[in-house]
Design goal:
260 residues; globular
């Protein structure tokens, strides 16, 4: 799918279409990461271990999403000696554009498009290496933190790309209702409020909040699906209450088992 494509997503579009997209791309990392295309990038802790143990761990990873997104070599600890707010650092030659993200206790999700050749791979290597070094030193451990290299899925249609915004931003709902995708949300309003208040995703930046972390996002290369915060809210509510979501999540278990 080319950048800027603004195909029409019908609210009646069955998620079987989205499911098919996952089927095509579950040969993760065998697909090329090319410019002008969009990718769902994710990884989790080795042995499904928790990789964010406290709020400062989430904060460090979020800082890396901003500061590692440059061709320059930056040392976070050195930078912090000169500025308490890492988001004031003026980056040059960003590697990727980030459209959405969410950090969960044992995994993370990113929506990316590359700005340079090998931009996604370079960016993910900087983020993963930087965070693993921080984590291992802090918790006096050694060895691999993540489950191999990052995984990626190509968002090759407008429907699938728009779906990913909901999928990523609604991930935190699993923390209060782990089976909601299988049987539906018990309380859509409560689920939405929880996702909207979750600090470690980009949803707040689509709901009108003003915060330093908003600088992580570069929405310009992505289609403008949500012109207002109300449109974002309406779309997420529709997914939370969309019954076909249940059927297609169940149908997709066989291929989605490796996706957190």
């Amino acid at each position: 799918m080319q950048r800027g494509t603004l195909g029409h997503l019908s609210k009646g579009t069955p998620l079987s279409f989205v499911t098919a997209c996952y089927h095509r791309d579950m040969t993760t990392r065998l697909i090329p990461l090319v410019e002008s295309e969009f990718y769902h990038v994710y990884n989790r802790g080795t042995d499904k271990r928790t990789i964010f143990l406290e709020s400062s761990d989430y904060k460090r990873f979020i800082e890396l999403l901003y500061i590692a997104n440059t061709s320059a070599h930056i040392n976070v600890r050195t930078l912090k000696r000169y500025s308490k707010d890492i988001f004031t650092f003026d980056r040059i030659d960003t590697l990727v554009s980030i459209g959405a993200y969410c950090l969960m206790p044992n995994h993370f999700h990113l929506l990316l498009t590359t700005q340079t050749k090998d931009g996604i791979s370079t960016f993910m290597n900087k983020v993963s290496t930087g965070y693993a070094m921080y984590f291992n030193k802090k918790y006096e451990r050694s060895g691999t933190l993540f489950q191999g290299t990052f995984k990626s899925q190509h968002a090759d249609s407008d429907e699938y790309l728009k779906y990913l915004y909901a999928y990523i931003h609604l991930n935190p709902v699993k923390l209060i209702d782990k089976d909601w995708k299988e049987r539906g949300s018990k309380d859509a309003a409560k689920s939405f409020d929880f996702a909207a208040s979750f600090q470690y995703s980009s949803l707040q930046d689509y709901l009108g909040s003003t915060r330093p972390e908003s600088l992580i996002l570069d929405k310009q290369p992505f289609p403008e699906y949500f012109m207002t915060s109300e449109e974002t809210k309406d779309d997420l509510f529709e997914w939370l209450t969309y019954q076909d979501f249940l059927t297609n999540q169940n149908e997709g278990r066989s291929f989605a088992k490796d996706r957190p």
